Amino acid sequence: MLELRIEGRSFGQPVLGEIFTTIRQGDRICLLGPSGIGKTTLLNAIAGLDHSLSAKAVPNRDKARVGYLFQEHRLLPWRTLRQNLAIVGADAADIDRVLDSVGLAGYADHLPDQLSLGMARRAALARCLVIQPDLLLLDEPFASLDPVRATELKHLILELLDRHPAMAMICVTHDAGDATDLANRLWYLDGQPACLQWDAPVGSPGTVEGVVQTLRNLDQVG
Amino acid sequence: MTPMYGRPPTWSYWVVLPAVMLAWAGLAEALDTSLLPAPLTVLGTLSGEAANGELWYHLGATLGRVLIAFVLAMALGTAIGVAMGRSATTNALFDPLLVVLLNLPALVTIILMYVWFGLVEVAAVMAVVINKVPNVAVTVREGARSLDPKLEDMATVYRFTRWQRFREVWLPQLFPYLMAATRGGLALIWKIVLVVELLGRSSGVGFKLHLAFQVFDVATILAYSLAFIAIVQLIELALLQPLERRASRWRQPETAHA
After folding, report:
1. What top-level class would CATH report for the domain A27-64+134-222?
2. pTM of the predicted model, to two decimals?
C-alpha cells in the first residue's frame, strides 16, 4: 500500500538512517525501540511532517489518508469537539457516530481542555477516525494513562481495527504487552543512525508466545 | 499598567476624576482668566458645538479617517508581521526597514506625504498608515513566532486548507497580539490623525483645534478634548472589551471529568 523510503538527513548527525520497507493494508505494526532513538521522528517522516529527512518517503502519500494520534491531543483548544471534527471534514452524522464509538457521546460541545487526559486522547482518536484513514499512526497511545484507562483505550483500538480490517496501523510503544495485544508485525528501531533492525511478522498474531518469540529473535540479532 | 497592580478598582475613577474637576473649577475661579475656563463653561461650549452640529461634523470626519487608517494599517501590518514571523528571509528583508520607520518621527512622514502628494485626503490617510504599520508588524511578528509548531503539524496531517490554517490555527493564537496592536494602534492613530488634520485638512477635530488655537479659544480646545476622550472610552468599552471577552472564553473552561 505504502512504499516507504527514508534516506536520513543529508546534513549533520542523521537521526534516521536508510529505511526501505512497505506497509500493506491490514498491517498492524508495533514500533519498538529504546527511548529517544527516533520512533516519533519516523512516524513524523511517514506522515510527511519531517522536511529535513530526504524522504522520498511515501510515493502515494498524497492519496493515502493518514490519521495521526499525537502524544498530546493537539485538538484546537478554542474549538469544541464537534467543531474540531467538522474542521477535518466530518459531517454532523459522522461526528455523533464517531464520538459515540469512542465513548464520548455526550461531549460533542465540550472544549478539549474541559476533558481529562484519557478523554482528550479518545477525542483525538475520534478525529483520526472521521477521516477514514488508510493508515493510522499512534504515538504511545497508552502513555500516562492509568492502567484502567489504558486497557479501555486498547480495547477501543482493537475494536476499531476489527471494524476496519483494511486500515494499516503503526503504533509506537515501549511495552511488549501492547505489542502482544495489537501487533501482527513488529518493527525494532535502533542504531546510530537508527534503522529498522528488525521488521518481522509476529509468529502467531495476538498471542504472547508469538511476540515473545519474535522479541527473543530480536535479542539474538541485536 | 504593570501586572503587579492590575486594573484599579472602579471607585478610584469616581474619586480622582471629580477631585481633579473640583481643583480645576477652584483654580479657574481664583485666576479668573479666559485662558483657563471653568468646567461649566467648557461643558457649555461642548453642548453649543453639539447643538449647532459642528461637533458631530468634525468628530465624524476624524472618526472616518481613524477608521480607514486603522483598517489599512492593521491589515497591512498583520500581513507583514505574519510573513516576517514565519520566514527568516522576509524578516531579513523587512527588519531594517522597520528599524528606520519605527524611528522616523510621525511629523516627518506627514510633512513628506503632504509635500509629495499635496494636501489631499489620500496623503493624510497614507501618512497615518505608514506611521502605524511598523508597530503592528512588530507586535504581530512576535505572535507569529510563537505559533505552536505542534498545531502546525496537526494542520498539515489533517490537510487544512490555507484559509482553515489561518482562521482556525493562526488567528486564535495571534488574537492577543492583534488586540495589543489594536489598543496601541487606536491610541497612536487618534493622535496622528489630529496632527494630520491640524497641518493640512479643513475638517476634523485637529482642524478645529487649529482654529481654536489661533484665537486662544481654550474652552473649545478643552470641549473637543473631552468629546474625544469620551469617544475613545466608548470604543474601548463597547467594542474592544466585549470582543476580548468573547474571543478568550475558551481559555478558562470548567473541567468535566468522566
Report:
1. alpha beta
2. 0.79
